[in-house]
Amino acid sequence: MATFVSLTHFTDQGMRTVKDTVKRSEAVKSAAGKFGARIKDVYWTLGQYDMVVVIEASDELAATAFALTIGAAGNTRTQTLRAFPPEEMQAILSKVG
Q1: pTM, full prediction
Q2: What's CA 51's distance to the chain center, in Å?
């Protein structure tokens, strides 16, 4: 499974219904499996982003399809980053000249 970190902003629509954000996160967790993904962690944050979500997905295609589907609901806009745990980073570094 690949790991992704999603840095999330509420849209205007998402802010109008912010009281439903925890309930929406539970619905998103349930939907993730349909895409070969799993929501590992959800954090609501202060500062530049409203939420940080850690996602595991079978591959980049699954993660992208999942992110596009969630984004189409209109409550959030995300910047998603591929994250590498130490063992994957070590494998990458072993290929560096």
Answers
A1: 0.90
A2: 9
